[in-house]
Amino acid sequence: MKRLITLFFLLALPGGALTQTTHQTAEGTVTVTPMITGLTEPWAIAFLPGGGKLLTERDGRLLYFGDGDPQAVRGVPRVAAVGQGGLLDVVAARDFAESREIFLTYAQPYQGGARTALAVARLSDDAGELEDLRVIFAMSQASGSGRHFGSRVVEAPDGTLFLTVGDRGAADRAQDPRAHNGKVVRVNRDGSIPADNPFADGAEALAEIWSLGHRNPQGAALDEDGRFWTVAHGARGGDEINRPEAGKNYGWPVISYGRHYSGGKIGVGVEQPGMEQPLHYWDPSIAPSGMIIYDGAMFPGWKGDIFVGSLKFDLISRLERDAGEVTEAERLFEGDYGRIRDIRQAPDGSIWFLSVGDGAAYRITPG
């Protein structure tokens, strides 16, 4: 039976389905409205000019929501839907109104395993198909592990693309300058290497590498100055927020504020010369995923704040920034929505989030 997907703007649904609710926050009362239901493992949502939306499901479906009925988009690359892998992030290019190009990240089947890959494609005029799909980055090595694909993509103001790549369960490779595991990579839109990448000549490290020593960054965003931020899973504790800078090493698995799941110590402790400190860390872990830095007008009191979804505690962490310090200020909706995977700011300034546990997309508005 074909799965029913519903796009709606109703106050409530009959039959005990998800309903609109209000919540008290430091910014005042907010309303959370379920907007899309019937989803299976939603991973990312993107807003298109004119009001359309694209949404990925991890099993390999790319869905388009416009004025009419929702539709599955054809031409999506084959994915390895294993463990944490599958069809992952989706982002509309800044010039989508002219180019109709989107960026997709996914676990690409390769040599009996899978690897994190980044593709660009054109969404057809009727939004029914991907055209001229090109893979512009793929990890040099595949792994049979189903863990730690990372896989958030962000288009920088200069048009280059940042992609987070997890360590794929091979922690030591996060420190290997000749492996893509545990790195942030940066490429041009055609897949070429930006001339100002820190290792662009390839002499010391792979030319695509922007920064190294990351465990599994599943959230990424730009701030008001166009600087790139990430949030990454730790092990048992040690989830961390970083602002990765060119050529810098963020420590995994040499330093960490967490411990192994066995309880054992990770690396040498929490400090090591030549390795960066996180701007914020959680212990115990919240299992962070999607991330935004809010810059809309709908919630003026939240402008500049960081929002991070939690897969473990079913909440949204709101963090404030002050003089370079990042502090958790509030935990929103704890336990009300299951496993929050993605958070995005909509063009109107509302905040949307995806709940894996509910199979739904929600919209946050004032009042």
Main sheet, how many strands, which sense, barrel? 6 strands, antiparallel
The assigned structural class equals: mainly beta
What oligomeric state is this? Answer: single chain
Determine Rg (CA atoms, Å): 19 Å
Spans of at least 5 consecutive residues with low confidence: 8-17
Strand content: 35-45%
Shape: globular
How confident is the prediction overall: mean pLDDT?
Answer: 95
* CA(first)-CA(last) distance: 39 Å
The DSSP helix count reads 1
- Return the string of H and E elements: EEEEEEEEHEEEEEEEEEEEEEEEEEE
- Assign a percent range to the helix content: under 10%
Strand runs, count = 26
Give an overview of the whole structure:
This protein has 367 residues and is an all-beta fold. It is 1% helix and 41% strand. The protein has one helix spanning 96-99, and strands at residues 6-7, 21-25, 28-37, 42-47, 53-57, 61-65, 71-72, 87-92, 101-110, 113-123, 130-138, 153-155, 161-165, 183-187, 209-212, 216-222, 228-233, 239-242, 280-282, 288-293, 306-310, 316-322, 325-332, 340-345, 351-355, 360-366. Strands 1, 2, 3, 24, 25 and 26 form a six-stranded antiparallel sheet that branches. The protein is globular and about 50 Å long. It starts with 5 loop residues before the first strand and ends with a strand.
Descriptors for this entry?
mainly beta; 4-stranded antiparallel sheet; 26 strands; globular
Secondary structure layout:
Layout: E1 6-7, E2 21-25, E3 28-37, E4 42-47, E5 53-57, E6 61-65, E7 71-72, E8 87-92, H1 96-99, E9 101-110, E10 113-123, E11 130-138, E12 153-155, E13 161-165, E14 183-187, E15 209-212, E16 216-222, E17 228-233, E18 239-242, E19 280-282, E20 288-293, E21 306-310, E22 316-322, E23 325-332, E24 340-345, E25 351-355, E26 360-366
Antiparallel strand pairs: 1-3, 2-3, 3-26, 4-5, 5-6, 6-7, 8-9, 9-10, 10-11, 12-13, 13-14, 14-15, 16-17, 17-18, 18-19, 20-21, 21-22, 22-23, 24-25, 25-26
